[in-house]
Amino acid sequence: MSANAPVRQQWPGAAAVARRAALSRALRCALLVALAGCSSWPRMAPGPEHIHPGGYRLEFRGAPDVLQATLRAAVAEDLADFARRGSGRAAVDDGAYSLELLLRERGHPFARVEWSLAMDEAGIGNIVYLIEAGPRTQIGEVLIEGSVALDAEELAALFRQRRGLLGAADTPYVESRVSAAVASVASLYFGAGFLHAEIGPAEVGFHAGGQVADIRLPITEGTRFRVSRIRIEGETAVPPAELRASVAEFLGEPFFPQVAFAIRARLADRLGASGHPEAQVEFEQTLDEESGAVELLYRCEAGPRVGVAAIAIEGQGGTATSFVLARLDLHEGAPWSLEDERSSYAALYRSGLFRRIELELARGADTSAQTADVAADAPPPPGAPIEEWRELVVRLEEGVQREAFLEPGWGSYEKARVVAGYRDRNLLGYGRTLHLEGALSTRSIRALAGVTDPWFAPEHDLVSDVSVFAGEREEPSFTRRELGTAFTLQ
Questions:
Q1: Residues of the chain with pLDDT under 50
Q2: Are 387 and 302 in contact (CB under 8 A)?
């Protein structure tokens, strides 16, 4: 499949679009005149006598519909090292190119920028950019030729701006956006199974004095490929019928390379859910170029079904072992499962206590004693028999759990004041937060201590907070004292 950049060619136009463009320009001109008539309108742009930090004066002539601040920002990076470039001519020329890009991105495809540079006796560069913006061009008609499988109107809409709250909006012609739209059309065809579709090149025709650009995009679709058959072979451990059912939704769907990898991932996940952590799935694909039929062959090696004989936790720092175990869906004496491993990862990360988490089924660990205990005490796990018992190693790295802060300040009434506090996000190793805070000023004193428990009722996602507070504050006509406690549940 190929998508080529647009090529400008003359092509018949759209008078209605030209009228809309003329009306839009008239409204913009009216707005500019109205603004110019406001005597209180601030002048923010520096005049041509302003010397910029790089050692130059800057003046723009032309481009009436672009703010001076926007023009200065466009050349700021190019002229930043003006003084260090000797004559600086290369920097000024780079700035002219940046201005042309700016104008083209705003719908002026024929914009040209000339420049002049003169150095005065003090070594200050006088830079003048002469801007010929040319007409502002709107996209007129968009003709999609050769599109049968995909809706031509939807493809044409990729070249236009979306409708706003006030209805349809004109779309300025920007060559880079037209190229992006052509690439989007190519991606849609590729995702629809047209692996060899030829998209473009786009042909652009300017008319109405360059104010309107019509676009013609030819498309040669070619053969459409679909998944016609999925074969599964090898040591699957799971009944092949179940594996085929898990990927049946792909049959008859458009084919592109990512589909084959998605099916492989689906099969590997199904084997992992059945307790096979070392499952391997490879595939081959056969494409019929004439009919578009795609046959996929998957070879599975399930590997042993593994159970968890013991759990070892490393690097938990001050976190209680029972807190970690409570967040694991993998348990001693139970089969290993990919789903349980993923949910265990999620629960540990959700605690907010660890910056790194790693779960590993250790090979070569001596688990004979644990395995004997499991076999004696635990009922046999459901499904196929466990072929190997391994130790689950949970490696953790705690994040920063404790912080102290000090915030001095000044107020018109309280004068000097200071706020200090301390937080421990893993109180006693169970993920609870202890927060202490105190404030002192010339007219007030306040203290607060509390504990937040995110695991108050995890099955209902409830968080509790209990706090004790005390304080005293001198008001202009009385002194306010408070002492109390609060309990919130959310």
A1: 5-18, 32-45, 369, 372, 375-376
A2: no
> Looking at domain 309-398, which CATH architecture does it have?
Roll (3.10)
Domain boundaries, the chain: 1-177+192-210, 226-301, 309-398, 402-489
| Residue located via tokens 């004979």 | 368
Cα distances (Å, whole numbers) of residue 219 to 145, 189, 216, 336: 6, 10, 10, 51
CATH dotted code for 226-301: 3.10.20.310
Q: Which CATH architecture has domain 1-177+192-210?
A: Roll (3.10)
From 199, 194, 160, 192, select the one nearest 177 (Cα to Cα). Answer: 160
Closest CA to 64 of 92, 32, 26, 39: 32
Q: Specify the residue for token string 């660890």.
A: 354
Tens-place pLDDT, residues 147-190: 789 999 999 999 987 765 555 567 899 999 999 999 999 999 99
Tokens of 162: 């979306």
pTM score of the predicted model: 0.73
- Nearest in space to 56 (alpha carbons), one of 130, 128, 124, 129: 124
* Sequence-separated (6 or more) residues with CB below 8 Å from residue 132: 62, 111, 112, 113, 114
> How, if at all, do strands 7-8 and 203-207 pair?
parallel
pLDDT digits 0-9 by tens, 424-455: 999 999 999 999 999 999 899 999 999 999 98
The H or E element spanning position 118 is strand 112-119
Structure tokens at 255: 């084919």
With 0-12 / 13-18 / 19 or more C-beta atoms within 10 angstroms meaning exposed / middle / buried, residue 380 is: exposed
Other CB atoms within 10 A of residue 80 CB? 13
Residue with tokens 């458009």: 254
